[in-house]
Design brief:
Layout: E1 7-10, H1 24-33, E2 37-42, E3 48-53, E4 56-58, E5 61-66, H2 71-78, E6 81-86, E7 95-102, E8 104-106, H3 109-123, E9 130-132, E10 135-138, E11 142-149, E12 151-158, E13 164-169
Antiparallel strand pairs: 1-13, 2-3, 2-6, 4-5, 5-11, 6-7, 7-12, 8-11, 9-10, 10-11, 12-13
Length: 171
């Protein structure tokens, strides 16, 4: 999954006249540094399901893991389209990000080992995962399947001076 530079567009309707489009590299830095993300999936009956989780940015995608029988994993079996969000709850400061894409299961064990190392480096030893049979294994929590979400479209919302809305379109 390449870290290709997408086209950045500032939406003047929702941006201060002094605002400029934010480079994708700045958004990637924020995505990589965020500690908590909110994942939105769609239930079989069409209702949304939203849950907070942790994740890592690697290989041009946001990655998260979940138990194979959890609601979000069940939802993804029927509909892989997701939205991941992160940012701050403040109104007049900070930056919020929205990533839209398709969640793709990661089963390649060398890649999973790299991702497991990234999880532990970011979140500490309590988030240590072994890799076995194409899944993460945590001795205290059991098995987790891993998904990658390469962005299809992303949005950034600058809050405060200057307010801005940037859209990144990926080919």
């Amino acid at each position: 999954m390449p870290d290709k530079e997408p086209r950045a567009e500032l939406d003047a309707r929702y941006s201060d006249e002094r605002a400029t489009a934010v480079p994708w590299s700045d958004a990637v830095t924020r995505l990589a540094e965020a500690e908590v993300y909110w994942l939105t999936t769609v239930r079989p009956d069409g209702r949304p399901h939203v849950t907070p989780l942790i994740g890592v940015w690697a290989d041009g995608a946001l990655h998260f893991c979940t138990g194979a029988h959890e609601r979000k994993a069940q939802n993804l079996r029927g509909n892989p389209h997701v939205v991941l969000t992160t940012g701050s709850n403040a109104l007049r400061e900070g930056y919020d990000l929205v990533v839209e894409g398709e969640a793709v299961r990661v089963g390649d064990e060398p890649r999973l080992r790299r991702l497991a190392g990234a999880w532990e480096a970011k979140y500490g030893a309590e988030w240590h995962f072994d890799v076995r049979d194409g899944v993460f294994v945590n001795p205290g929590a059991g098995e987790a399947v891993v998904f990658a979400v390469p962005p299809r479209t992303a949005f950034g919302f600058g809050k405060g001076e200057p307010y801005s809305q940037t859209r990144w379109r990926f080919s």
